[in-house]
């Protein structure tokens, strides 16, 4: 079966996110004053060929740990869609 | 009320995504051969102060159009969480 999988990789809450901070400030300059705490990470989509949802999730977890995310600075969240 | 809002900004389907292509190839090198069509975009989270969900969505849409996304190369999707 083929699964569509998304991964969200975000900077850890405990760390500064300078890109997010810059965007938060820029909001004020374009007169948007009700948006705060902007944080910017990566959204990754892919298709995974697997027997079941669990196998798909395991493959993507392996890819995250060995290739996609930096455990010192980031956390990741996997969503398996049908 | 305060809303948590996420935006996913992805390269348009019709365009090449060189970063995604590079990651797809790298998957083979670490012996993951069931993952294809990797595409990489941005995941942005923020808090929005607004009367209701609709007002929150409108603010974020304005931020996307004036600051965050490039309509020539990207599409965006807004999710308002409670």
Fold and architecture overview:
- The structure is a homodimer of 82-residue chains.
- Chain A is an alpha+beta fold and 82 residues long.
- The first copy, chain A, has a single domain (2-81), classed as Phosphoribosylformylglycinamidine synthase subunit PurS (Mth169, Chain: A), CATH 3.30.1280.
- Chain A has two helices and three strands, in the order E-H-E-H-E.
- Chain A has a three-stranded antiparallel beta sheet with strand order 2-1-3.
- The radius of gyration of chain A is 16 Å and the shape is elongated.
- Chain A starts with a strand and ends with a strand.
- The A-B interface holds A 8-10, 20, 23-24, 26-27, 30, 32, 34-50, 59-60, 62-63, 66-68 and B 8-10, 20, 23-24, 26-27, 30, 32, 34-50, 59-60, 62-63, 66-68.
- Strand 2 (35-49) of chain A pairs antiparallel with strand 2 of chain B, so a sheet runs across the interface.
Question: What is this structure's SSE topology?
Answer:
The structure is a homodimer of 82-residue chains.
Chain A: E1 2-11, H1 18-29, E2 35-49, H2 53-68, E3 74-81
Antiparallel strand pairs in A: 1-2, 1-3
Key traits:
homodimer, 82 residues, alpha+beta, Mth169, Chain: A, three-stranded antiparallel β-sheet, 3 strands, 34% helix
Task: Count the E strands of chain A.
Answer: 3
Order of helices and strands of chain A: EHEHE
Looking at the overall shape, the CATH architecture of chain A is: 2-Layer Sandwich
Give start-end ranges of low-pLDDT stretches of chain A: none
Oligomerization category of the chains in this entry: homodimer
Which structural category fits the helices and strands of chain A?
alpha+beta
Q: Main beta sheet of chain A: strand number and arrangement?
A: 3 strands, antiparallel
How are the strands ordered across the major sheet of chain A? Answer: 2-1-3
